[in-house]
Write a structure and sequence with these properties.
Radius of gyration: 19 Å
Number of helices: 12
Shape: globular
Distance between the termini: 18 Å
Number of strands: 13
Strand order of the largest sheet: 3-4-6-9-10-11-12-13
Number of domains: 1
Largest sheet: 8 strands, parallel, barrel
CATH topology: TIM Barrel
Order of helices and strands: EEEHEEHEHEEHEHHEHEHEHEHHH
Length: 357
């Protein structure tokens, strides 16, 4: 019997050759939002890792939506062309590996300097843009304050997501993952801890979902040929914050709008008051709940490092796939080594076959 980890999976009509996903991991090496030489070599290694799916890091839908000054963007023609070149390079390395891009808006967590130079939140004058959020406020005491989004701001950001999605389709990606976790803008609207609006975009759970669902609809319309996925938190780890039941309810609504898969992560980064469990967070417990309650394709993310551990998660029905992030950076051939350990077969370029098979 073949290892579960190396069986194909259908996601939104797209066949992914195995259950290994390399999740988005910010590199902060872009100039003016452009993918460059660093990204070509970085993603080239990852698509050649044996993973069936690679998701390009958080890519901003507007200049003010970047997390840092060095984040990728997909809001102009030059960035689209750079992404198309990146996708083309990756396809030449591995035709079978599927490529998604994560579209994101940082919201109140934006405006950061180049983290390789200094860990600093830039002032309004230094950043050049307002920080936007559902509700006025700061991520932490020393941060620049975000202003509450107006109706026009909301409509403009939704349009930015749609425009970036259309560019992703033109660049040649197979799918889009929307970032609704880690305390970025979609998550900020979803959570009662950060969305204290009293208009139609806040209040009860359905109203707090409205912005994310409108973004999903706009992206679906702009890029109908691409598979649509979400990164969601397991919960908020805050009293009165989102719980797994709230995330499950949101996923059910998102599925009705065409979302085909979720990547379930630990949910940190929303607020410094979060009380994260000590030690390893068993995120697969949460991915299992979402998977069983909704029927969606669910990937588990967080501290998955060993092939037998990954195989056990899928065999037990805790998730349909696993995200191998930092471990894949430490060992870019993790997928092939996992195949060896599990006595499975995974695609390898001809020059590498003697080393692995």
């Amino acid at each position: 019997m073949s290892a579960f980890l190396f069986t194909p999976i259908e996601v939104g009509g797209l066949t992914i050759p195995n259950r290994i996903c390399v999740p988005p991991m910010c590199q902060c090496r872009a100039d003016d939002g452009l993918a460059g030489a660093w990204h070509v070599q970085h993603y080239g290694k990852l698509v050649d890792s044996g993973a069936g799916l690679v998701v390009v890091e958080a890519t901003a839908v507007s200049p003010e939506g970047r997390i840092t000054t060095r984040c990728l963007g997909l809001y102009n023609d030059a960035q689209q062309q750079a992404m198309a070149s990146l996708v083309d390079s990756c396809r030449k390395i591995s035709e079978q590996t599927r490529l998604f891009v994560q579209l994101s808006h940082a919201g109140r967590k934006g405006g950061r300097a180049d983290p390789a130079q200094e860990k600093k939140v830039l002032s309004r004058q230094e950043w050049g843009f307002d920080l936007l959020a559902p509700t006025e406020g700061k991520y932490f005491a020393g941060a620049t304050s975000a202003r509450a989004m107006t109706e026009n701001d909301i409509k403009r950001v939704i349009a930015d997501f749609a425009a970036a999605a259309a560019r992703a389709a033109k660049a040649g990606f197979d799918g889009i993952q929307l970032h609704a976790a880690y305390g970025y803008l979609l998550h900020q609207f979803l959570s009662p801890a950060t969305n204290r609006r009293t208009d139609a975009w806040g209040g009860d759970a359905q109203a707090r979902m409205r912005f994310a669902l409108e973004v999903i609809r706009a992206v679906r319309t702009a890029a109908p040929g691409l598979v649509l996925a979400l990164r969601v938190p397991a919960c908020d780890w805050l009293p009165g914050g989102l719980q797994i039941e709230d995330i499950t309810a949101f996923v059910k609504c998102a599925m009705k709008e065409g979302v085909a898969a979720v990547d379930v992560s630990s949910g940190g980064g929303l607020d410094l008051a979060q009380q994260m469990p000590s030690g390893r967070i068993m995120v697969q417990k949460y991915s299992r709940i979402i998977r069983e309650e909704t029927g969606i394709v669910a990937y588990a993310a967080g501290n998955i490092t060993e092939p037998l551990q990954a195989e056990a998660i899928i065999a037990a029905g805790d998730a349909d796939g696993v995200c191998i992030g930092r471990e894949m950076i430490r060992n870019p051939k993790w997928g092939r080594m996992a195949a060896q350990e599990l006595h499975a077969v995974v695609q390898a370029p001809a020059p590498y076959i003697p080393a692995f098979f």
